[in-house]
C-alpha cells in the first residue's frame, strides 16, 4: 500500500477565513455573484487570487488516479443508526461497481481515532470519505479537505459552515412529531426525558417538542435531563416520577432515546404504571430494541438507511460529475405508533 | 491504490487433495511425522515436492511489503454478533498500531459479495483478513489462501478442515446450557423453537438441548422449526402453541434466536401466558434487543467481542511470528438468567 504525502491545498474555508466572510458568501461569489454586494465580492475574489484557490480541482487531481474504493468512518458501530447508514451506503456502492470499506472510531476512540482513520484513508487514496460526525464537530471534514480529499458529512445536527456536502436528519422535527403525537392522544402534562441541552441532537429534539406544546393551548412540558442516554438513565428518572403524586406525574413522555424509554418502562411497570393508559410513551430514535420489545415502543424513526444512500450518492456525484455543487440534504424522520403510546388497537404508521 | 496480480500459491489444502489425505494428516507430516504411517508420510512428502509447496513462506513474502492494515469481512452488519466482533478486533488492532477496515457482505450479498471483498482486500495487499463465515462455508478462506493471503475464520459452527486458524463458538454448549437451565427450574415439557436443522448453528444448538434432556430423566423436548429466525417466525409458532390445551403446551422453551423469543412473547402474552409462570423462556443468542426488553429475556450470551479479540490476536501472531502455527480456538458461551425464565426475584448471571 503506497503512502504519498497528502498535498496541502487551499480550501474554500481558507478563503472564507482570510476574507472574513462565511463559506456561504464564498460559494455565492462563485455561483451567484449577483447576490453578493460588490465590495464583498471584490474582497473575496482578491483573496481567491491571492491564496491561489482552485475550485475543487486539486482534490480531483489527487483522487483521480486513485482507487474504486470509498470509506465510511462510523461514530459507534454498536449503535444501529450507523450500521443502517452502512447498509444504505453499501447498497449504492455495490450497484455502482465500487467498494465500501468502513472503520469504527468508537465512542471511546472519539475524534482522535476518527482523525487516525481519516489520515489512513487519505494515505490509501480512497476516492472519498463518508464521515459521521461526533456531536456536530466538523474538524474531521476540514482535515480531509485540507488534504485535498472528498468528504460528505453525515448526521450533522444543525446546518454547519463547511466546504462539503452534508446530510442532516431533522431532529427538531423528531421532537415535534413525538410531542404532537402525544398531544393528539389528549395528553397535556408532557415530559421530555433524558440527555443534556449541550448535546446538539438532544437540544434540537427538545426544541421541537417545546414548539409542538407551544402551538397547543393548555399543555405543558418539563425537561428531565440525564447525563447519558442509557437504560439506567431512564430507570433513575422513573424513580423520580414514581415518587410524585399521580396528578403530578406526566401523562405523556417523549424519551430522548429508545434506551431511555426502555429504562422508564422497566422501572415504572412494577410501580403499577400502565402504558399507555397512565403514561403514553414515545422515543425519539428507533433502534432495533424498540421494535422487538415485549411492549412495543412507539418511536420516531431515524432514516439511517436513507442517510447512507443520500450520502453515498452525493459522494459519487462529487467523484464523477465535473459540475458537482455541494448540497445540504435534510431528511425527515417518520413516526411509528406502537402499543406504548396508543395501546393495542390503533397501532400503525404515520408519515 | 496499487493493484498487483495476486500470486497463486500452493496451499496445504492442495497438497491434501493431491495426496488424498486430510489437512490434519498433512499438518502431522510437517509437525509430528511420527504420528503418520510411513506409507502415507512418503506419499505426502512426495506430493509436497511435486507441487512445490512452501510452508507459509509465499504468503509471508506477498504480505511482507504490505500495509499496516487488516480487514474484516462481515456476514451481516445488522446483526450485533458481527459488530461485537468488530469492536473486539478493533480494540486489539488499535492497541497494536494497526488499522482495521471492515466490509459488509450482507445477507443478500452472500458469498459472491464476500468473494468480491476478499479479492479487493487482497489487491490492496492487506496484511490479513478476518473472515466471518456464512453457515460453515469455508470457500472464502480457500480463496484467500490460494492468493497467498492470511486469514482467520470466525464463527465456524463445527471444526472445519482448512489451512487457517479458526475461532468457533461452542453452539452445542449454548443449547445444552439453555435446556439445562430450564430443567433446573423444574420444567419437563421443553420445546426448541425456530430455525432449520440444515443450518449448522441451529443444528448444534438443538443437539445440545437434546443432550441436556437425555441426561435428565422424565423430560422431553420437541422441535418446532421455522424457515427464518425473525420475530414473525416466533409469532407464527406461538399461535400453534396457543391452540393446544395447556397440558400439551410446553412449560419451557429454548428459542433458537432472541428475535424468535421476542415474537413468542409478543403473541403469547395477549393469550394469557405468563413468563415464566406458564412458560420459562430462554433464547440462544444474546442481542441488544433481549437485554433491553420490557420483560427482560434470559439468554445464552454469544462471546462476540471475545471472538473478535481472539481472531485478531491469531491474525497478528500469523503476521508477526515466524513460528506461527494455526490454532483452533473454541469459546464458551455464558448464561444470563433474566425475568423471562426465573421471574423477578432470582435474576443473575451464571457461567
Automatic annotation (TrEMBL), chains A, B:
<keyword id="KW-0805">Transcription regulation</keyword>
<dbReference type="InterPro" id="IPR000843">
    <property type="entry name" value="HTH_LacI"/>
</dbReference>
<dbReference type="InterPro" id="IPR046335">
    <property type="entry name" value="LacI/GalR-like_sensor"/>
</dbReference>
<feature type="domain" description="HTH lacI-type">
    <location>
        <begin position="10"/>
        <end position="64"/>
    </location>
</feature>
<keyword id="KW-0238">DNA-binding</keyword>
<dbReference type="InterPro" id="IPR028082">
    <property type="entry name" value="Peripla_BP_I"/>
</dbReference>
<dbReference type="Pfam" id="PF13377">
    <property type="entry name" value="Peripla_BP_3"/>
</dbReference>
<dbReference type="Pfam" id="PF00356">
    <property type="entry name" value="LacI"/>
</dbReference>
<keyword id="KW-0804">Transcription</keyword>
<protein>
    <submittedName>
        <fullName>Transcriptional regulator</fullName>
    </submittedName>
</protein>
<dbReference type="InterPro" id="IPR010982">
    <property type="entry name" value="Lambda_DNA-bd_dom_sf"/>
</dbReference>
